[in-house]
Every structure is written in C-alpha cells, then in structure tokens.
Amino acid sequence: MTEIRRVGVVGLGAMGAGIAQLCVEAGVETVGREVTAELGEAARGRIGHFLTRKVEKGTLQQEARDAAVGRLTTTTELADLAGCDLVIEAIVEELEPKRVLFAELERLCRPDTVLATNTSALSVTEIAAATSSPERVVGMHFFNPAPLMPLVEIVRAQLTADEPFEAAFAFGTRLGKTAVRCHDTPGFVVNRVLIPLLNDCLRVLDEARVSAEDLDTAMRAGAGWPMGPCELVDLVGIDVHVHAAEALYEKLREPRMAPPPRLVAMRNAGLLGRKSGRGFYPYPR
Ligand SMILES: NC(=O)c1ccc[n+]([C@@H]2O[C@H](COP(=O)([O-])OP(=O)(O)OC[C@H]3O[C@@H](n4cnc5c(N)ncnc54)[C@H](O)[C@@H]3O)[C@@H](O)[C@H]2O)c1
Asked: I need a labelling partner for 25 at 20 to 30 A (CA). Which of 15, 150, 166, 172 fits?
C-alpha cells in the first residue's frame, strides 16, 4: 500500500486549511496550494492561530505546535505537489475546475499518488473520469470544521481500486478521524440522510406554525438531538445548506431534497446564519 509521508492539499479555504492542520498535527509533511501567495499565507496564519489556542488550552505542547506549523509549506505552483503520496483537493464546489485540476495532478504526480477529493455533492466518478487513471481517485469527505468533526467518509468511485481506497481509509484513521467506507452516490451517507431531514424540519416551521426556538427545543427534548435544526443550519451556513440541497435535488429529483423556499429567500437576503451575524437567530447569541 502507498505509504503516506507527504501530503498535498489543494485549496486552503475553510475545509482545506482544516485538513492541512490535521495532517501537520499528525506529523505529516504537508504542501498547501492556493491561487495566490497571500491566500496561502493567510491560511498558514489561521492554522498557526488555532494551534496556539490549543497550547493556551493545555491540549498541545508549544514545541509540538511549532513543529506542526513547521511541517506546512504553501505554494501557488501545483508542480510543488509532485512528490506527494496523497493529494487532497478542497477547491470550489464546481465540477469543471475540479476536473481540470485532477487532469493536471495526474500529469504532475507519480502514478501511485492517491488523488482524493473532498467534494460534498459532486460525483467522485465524474471527477475521476477527467484522468486516465481513475483507479487511484477516491473521495475523502471531511466535515466542517475538519479539525473538530470526527467523521470522514471514504468514497469509492466507480473505478477506484482497492489499494488507494484502503490507503485513504488508513490515512483518515491516522488523522484521528472515524472513517467509514461508502460508494459514490449523491450525498454519500450523512448528507443523503441529513439534508432531506433538515428540509423536513424547516418545512414544519410553516406547516405547524411553530417558532424556530420551539422547533429546536422540540427536537432536542423529544428526539435527543444535541442541537436543534435551526441552530444547526445557522452553524452550517444557510447558503451552504441550500447549495447542497439543490445539488441533491438535481441528481435525485426527490421533492424532499429541494431546499424549502423559506431558506432560499433567507439565502437571497444574505441571512446566512452565524457567519453573516443573522440567520434563524441573531449572532453573537
Ligand atoms: N464548507 C463545508 O461545510 C464543506 C464540508 C465538506 C466538504 N466541503 C467541500 O470542500 C470543498 C471546499 O469547500 P470550502 O468550504 O473549503 O470552500 P472555500 O471557498 O472556503 O475554499 C476554497 C479555496 O480554494 C481556493 N481555490 C480555488 N481554486 C483553486 C485552485 N485551482 N488551486 C488552489 N486553490 C484553489 C480558493 O482560493 C479558496 O481559498 C468543496 O468541494 C466543498 O463542497 C465543504
């Protein structure tokens, strides 16, 4: 099995920076590629800051923090990822840029480099089909925020071979994640279940004329949810939820997958949840 000593992360946004942080904390040399040097530096700064907070909380030694930050280099040149054993892609959620990127990665990396995508809603198989070696392409679907959410879904595309698939699974476990294996179907496991479920919850707001507060209270107290659906969608980002729901609806044509009009209207009005300061609730709460 490919031994993972050096990892490339393409795209150091919300997800990519979190994934890069996990890699360097696990002792792995990591190269992050962004479109500009400033974005790469900003991501490095965010990672350094999160690790400093862990030192302040007493969950990480200062030397370990410094060593972890030292394992991360950033670049704008994709060719700098040539020596990587695994590359994890976390760029914009659009098929064409991902396909272009995977074709370039295939050209630049060794034939045994495992190529992984963190896509939430696109087909891993369609991304893999942009290469002539789709057997080494897998999905590694982390959850936001990657350093905190325990799960990673390891997604087998139509032509993924066993060895890269198991290498990705083993690496997810090495990052301290709970890894599960699944096939490349719309929404994989968690989003396939969670998105229509949250949509149902939000439709109940209008159907049962219950308030957001009472809906959250009901699901916490009556269904044992750790967090109510309105709180959860505010945390995920209303734009992110609407985008994922639209993508699932496009693929499956099941009415339950379609985002409720109330949520689309909130997204259009810029009420995006926590990150915009207002969603179902005002923030800070
Ligand atoms: N945000 C989530 O909740 C979440 C959860 C799981 C998976 N994902 C998936 O992860 C991926 C990234 O999402 P995100 O929320 O981190 O997005 P983001 O917008 O925060 O980050 C994307 C980053 O990629 C960079 N980028 C774009 N094209 C690039 C290229 N060719 N090379 C290098 N960098 C490039 C951008 O500059 C940006 O910094 C998407 O596929 C998304 O579906 C997101």
From this structure: 166
- How much is the pLDDT for 244? 93
Q: Which of 241, 237, 250, 261 is nearest to 198 (CA)?
A: 241
The residue to which tokens 């999905």 are assigned: 139
Q: Could you tell me if the CB of 120 is within 6 A of ligand 1?
A: yes
Q: Let me know if 141 is a catalytic residue.
A: yes
Q: Give CA–CA dist 253/249, Å, rounded.
A: 5
User: In the chain, how many H helices and how many E strands?
Assistant: 11, 8
* φ/ψ (deg, to 5) at 108: -90, -30
CA distance 16 to 275: 18
Helix (H, G, I), strand (E, B) or coil at 94: coil
Distances in Å between the Cα of 106 and the Cα atoms of 92, 111, 140 are: 19, 7, 17
**Is 235:227 a contact under the CB 8 Å cutoff?**
yes
pLDDT at residue 2 tops 90: no
Assign 212 a pLDDT band (cuts: 50, 70, 90): very high
Q: How far is the CA of 221 from the centre of ligand 1 (A)?
A: 35
What pTM value is reported for the model?
Answer: 0.95
Ligand 1 pocket, 124 CB below 6 A?
A: no
Query: Out of 118, 123, 191, 199, which one is annotated catalytic?
Result: 191
Which contacts of 39-43 are long-range, i.e. CB under 8 A and separated by 24 or more positions?
A: 39/12, 40/12, 40/74, 40/75, 40/76, 41/74, 43/12, 43/13, 43/16, 43/17, 43/74
The CB of 119 under 6 Å from ligand 1? The reply is yes
Which of the listed residues 9, 10, 12, 15 should we mutate to test ligand 1's pocket, taking the one with most ligand atoms within 8 A of CB?
A: 15
